[in-house]
Amino acid sequence: MMTALKTMIFTVLVPGTVAVLIPYRIVSSAGARGTIAIGGLPYFVHYFGLAVIPIGALIYLWCAWDFTFAGKGTPAPIDPPKQLVVRGLYRYVRNPMYVGVLSLILGQAIWFESVHLIAYAGLAFLLMHAFVLFYEEPALKRKFGESYERYCETVPRWIPRVKA
């Protein structure tokens, strides 16, 4: 129960800030709203963003659930899972939690037609990718050893493999 509480607190503080508070501040600041420079999109396309937002939230929440109950830890780097999580969405990509957060940001970018949010999503991705490469993956290799290396060989980092 304590692990679930810690996961909820982390979720509000970190993904809540990255995927909700900062995008809110960006779109509410003067001059931050603007048509996405891809020109000529039909009006209904921005509703696609409204559909992507809850999908991103569900992805994150599913992964946080798996970290908490299957991994016996939290998404927080200071209290990571004790067991390697390779179930659920982790069967398809190694970083679905980040994919969920990025989906939330991109959904808002499409909904609000904000070039600034698109740029923020790009920056967020670069920072997440650097964190994964330089901290997470080395830490997971040290902690889980050969089982994590086998997992890396079979599951891609960001984009699921298309099976023929």
How would you describe this protein?
- It is built from six helices and no strands.
- The protein has 164 residues and is mostly helical.
- It has one domain: Four Helix Bundle (Hemerythrin (Met), subunit A).
- The mean pLDDT is 91.
Please compute the radius of gyration using only Cα atoms: 17 Å
The CATH architecture is: Up-down Bundle
Amino- and carboxy-terminal Cα gap: 42 Å
Backbone structural class: mainly alpha
CATH class: Mainly Alpha
- How many DSSP H or I helices? 6
SSE ordering: HHHHHH
Major sheet size, sense and barrel closure: none
Summed up, the domain count is 1
CATH topology: Four Helix Bundle (Hemerythrin (Met), subunit A)
| Low-confidence segments | none
Range of strand content: under 5%
Record field, number of beta strands: 0
**In which range does the helix fraction lie?**
55-70%
Average pLDDT taken over every residue = 91
Overall geometric form = globular
